[in-house]
Amino acid sequence: MRVSRQKAMENRRRIVDAAARLFRGEGFDGVGVDAIMKEAELTHGGFYGHFASKDALMAEAMAHAVERSTAWQERLDSLSELVTGYLSDRHRADRANGCVVAALGADVARQAPALRRTVATGIRRQVDRIVTLLKHGTPAARRRRAIATYAGMVGALTLARAVDDPALAREILAAARETFGKEAS
Amino acid sequence: MRVSRQKAMENRRRIVDAAARLFRGEGFDGVGVDAIMKEAELTHGGFYGHFASKDALMAEAMAHAVERSTAWQERLDSLSELVTGYLSDRHRADRANGCVVAALGADVARQAPALRRTVATGIRRQVDRIVTLLKHGTPAARRRRAIATYAGMVGALTLARAVDDPALAREILAAARETFGKEAS
DNA sequence: TGTACATCAGTGAACGCGCGTTCACTGATGTAC
DNA sequence: TGTACATCAGTGAACGCGCGTTCACTGATGTAC
Question: What is the 3-state secondary structure (H, E, C) of B108-174?
């Protein structure tokens, strides 16, 4: 049964959005086209009217997720706010709506160039954003510091999620918050 | 055709070793039982004489990889050596023989408790190891610093591998080496 | 030490299932008059 | 503005392939005498 062009565009957006969440939550291989379409309240057959392949959707979903997460942090205006939010227990528990790199980091390295380029763009933007939140040092030192801070954030969240011991997970997040949350002079 | 008990044990070890490398290189879902057995120079049918399931091998392969990487770093005796080696271009390019957490971090979070517990043990050991390399500060401060340093190492390697731009990858590794390689007072 | 038989590590065909993808079909939408 | 037809978004069955797992079989190893 045909659907209005506007509704079709909305459906497409819903598929990308569902994919962006499900991929982060379960990994690229952990989610099938069928599950994504079901999440978007459609049937799997219609998928290929919107996308050339699952790979194509993966790339588009990553672009969507990167866009969203960048938009989200525009509102933050201090390093400690950014770090505290990123290294929160809430973010640790909610892979599906969180940072793409922490949710899919190792998987991204094995994906097609187009997808990796998209993620690289997101990383660059995140680093630039942190640079603007740093107040001390030369531009080069601030950039270096921003990269190390972002690396620390991603690594701490990855470690906290990998570990099965809640106490250790909390300790990791707390240690990283204290280390990366304030700008050491 | 039957094989001596000693040879059978050696075969089992070869399967675990091949699995540890292949899983890190291609991800848990990226490698099949067939590929692992072929890498170990056996046929896939014999697999279930050694292991109850692919999941069981995954857990054992992680234990093996954690053991090996811990043994490897025993030889290092300074923080800068450890950090420089970890954040080298060689390690970035060689996922299959490198750090388990950087190679499979996000995937580990989705695995069975037994596997996550094994990885947690490896993480604890790595943190303890870094603590012994730190010279300044109270025990609590050193532990905090060790966790943050390990997080920075894992995150930087993850970012460098995710990115498709070699120049950016090198910049990330260099920034992290400078930041985490020397013990800030 | 040698022989006869039981054991069992490894082989390769086969099974069942899930997943990515295709396709004939449906019926509401969009358009031409 | 209303009617007739073409278009095409979405449906659901089906296909083919790969993967985890099973199983009957093989033949060298291990053991009992």
Answer: HCCCCHHHHHHHHHHHHHHHHHHHHHCCCCCHHHHHHHHHHHHHHHHHHHHHHHHCCCHHHHHHHHH
